[in-house]
Amino acid sequence: MKGLWQSFSLAWNFLTILPLPFSSQSHVQPQTIAASFGWYPFVGFLLGTILVLSDRLLMMVLSEPVANMLLLSILVMVTGALHQDGLADTIDAMAGGKDPHHRLAIMRDSHIGAIGATGLILAIGLRYAGLVNLPSESRESLLLCMPALGRWSMVMASWNVTYPRPDGGVAAAFIQFISVRDVFMATMIMLIGLMWAIHPLKAIVLLFGIMLMTRLIVWWASRAFGGVTGDILGTINEVIELIFLVSAPWFVGNL
Question: Which terminus in the chain has less CB density within 10 A, N or C?
Answer without folding.
Answer: N
